[in-house]
Amino acid sequence: MIAKISSPFGDNTTLLKKISYNVTKIEVGKGEYLYDNFFENDIHKLFVEMKEVGEMNDRVDKKFIEVSLNLTPGEQIDNDKFLQLGKEYMQRMGYGNCCYAVIRHSDREHKHLHILSTTVDYDGIHVSNSYDWRKSQELSRDLEKKYGLKEVEYNKFNSKSLSKIKEREYYFSNALDKGLRNFSTKTELLELLSDEAKLIQNNQLSNTELEILLGKNVYNEVGNVLEKNNLFVSLYKEELLQQLDMCYTSSKNKYDFFERVHAAGLYVRTIADKDGKQKLTYGLPNANIYFKENRLPQKYRYAAISNFMTTRAMSTDEQKNAIASKVIVALNNSNSFESYLIELDKIGVNAMLHQNTGGIYGISFQLKDIEGAEIIKASEITTNRRFSFFNITRYFSGEATPLNDLLKVGTIVKQSSMSEEAQKTHIRNQVILTLPSAKSIEDLIEKLSEKGISLWVRKSKSAEVKGFSFKMKNCTDAIPIKARDISANFDKELFIAVQGLQANHNNDTMNRFMNKVEHGDFNGSNIPILQERVEFSDVGGVSGNLQNDDAPLSKKKKKKNNIDFKGKVEL
């Protein structure tokens, strides 16, 4: 049996509504008026009687209380026995001399009693509700045994929940602080905490410190109260929103947003509801906590995200190119075919295996979260079928395949047409993939050229490096694109990555180099070797004062020296 005690209330309007609710249940055959202790046996006279008894002590504000006694589903007990149990419960809880009435409900799968009572007895004495929650638990266990009912344990603060909370050092303290400021939970918590409450309210304590201070049993009981009132869930929601906000503010479009959400270790999936409408679900997988979009701000709902800085629909060639780039990333991050499929899912590609009676014979890909995304066979991505299922399985078996060389130098996918945004994304991806293996500026230019990208180094009149420009070789819509236009800090990051190549060169050497760059006549004999690899950051994290873009980059203030260019490809 589970006993639930509502918070005391004092207004007559609420009392009248509760009585009216029970009257309705009786009228529709879902309730039965069993008893009142003022011997009228008439629910219509209950309001006047309770109101008059409550007014016998004008110093009491909260004059009324409601209790429900709930059996387990399927458990049966006759009215006389159930009423006897209810009367004993009220007597032993201290409300026996108060004005109360007992109504049995049968509107749910479990039978239960509703008891409306005053907190002022017929002698005008106020019955304190201090420690009611703990007293009620102990009494419920005793009544279960006495009346032969199934023993029901109140929900414990289970070990699974506890382990998740302990991973977040101050979650328990923060949830408890919320609970002590919440009207509906404050009384119940104070009953458990007693003298410790003041110390807890004034100090943020770690989970371990709280467990030591309260003792394991009280700690678990408090945890149960916080958990059943969803006070931990609200903290998880705040954590999720904080991370989503970081992803959102740094994203260029919805595709970029989904990439960043996955990279942050968060969960996001598009799911169709019963009406076929697309909805998003977000979550914290490490805590097994998930939220439907309607519990989050409007901007994170499917309709809003779909319109979030979107570019035009991707052509078939653009989709092939995006899949090719993602396939390379997934292959580089995998050591088996199974882990390869997992990596594809993480970076936004659905992989569909084709099989017949002879087993699996092929694989197709489809970009996630893109309207009108096509299902593209692996053999169709490039003309030489290098991404075919056959080549991929051979690659993971350690055999030599066209993929081995591809993973070293990247790929070129012939493009009949690409939007400007698609060109920018492709260029940035290929630079990030290529730079770690480049040994010199010339080497970088050659490697990018092999991938169908031309690189120019722009310089000022004083012959100092000013910036970088790119152009796609195999695209009919190709336009020159400055690095600074690709993303906010891309120009600065690229400069820092290659500045070691010119550190020991005077202007004449740089001029000769620039002349060779401009005319495509490369000779690596005079190019210094890059001493340390520099990798690109996830969000272009170099900060610097570049408001005067005509000033040489070498003279501009750079505030961040420990550059971490290690990041993931944006697609």
Task: Report on the architecture of this protein.
InterPro entries: Endonuclease_MobA/VirD2. Residues 28-149 form the MobA/VirD2-like nuclease domain. This is Relaxase/mobilization nuclease family protein. It is built from 23 helices and 14 strands. α11 packs across α12 (254-263). β12 (453-459) and β13 (465-472) form a beta hairpin. The radius of gyration is 35 Å and the shape is elongated. The chain has 571 residues and is an alpha+beta fold. It folds into five domains: 2-146, BirA Bifunctional Protein, domain 2, CATH 3.30.930.30; 159-229, no CATH class; 253-306, no CATH class; 316-409, no CATH class; 420-555, no CATH class. The model is unreliable at 154-160, 409-416, 501-510 and 522-571 (pLDDT under 50). The strands form four sheets. The protein has a five-stranded antiparallel β-sheet, sandwiched between helices. A three-stranded antiparallel β-sheet has the order 6-7-8. Strands 9-10-11 form a three-stranded antiparallel β-sheet.
Runs with pLDDT <50, length 5+?
154-160, 409-416, 501-510, 522-571
Biggest sheet: strand arrangement: 1-3-5-4-2
Structural class: alpha+beta
| CATH topology description of the largest domain | BirA Bifunctional Protein, domain 2
Radius of gyration: 35 Å
How many beta strands in the DSSP annotation?
A: 14
The average pLDDT value, as a whole number, equals 75
Helical residue percent?
40-55%
Any idea what the shape is? Answer: elongated
- Count of discrete alpha- or pi-helical segments spanning 4 or more residues: 23
The CATH class label of the largest domain is: Alpha Beta
How many structural domains in the coordinates?
5
Largest sheet entry:
5 strands, antiparallel
CATH architecture of the largest domain: 2-Layer Sandwich
Strand content: 15-25%
Distance between the termini: 57 Å
Domain MobA/VirD2-like nuclease: 28-149
Protein name: Relaxase/mobilization nuclease family protein
Pfam families: Relaxase
InterPro entries: Endonuclease_MobA/VirD2
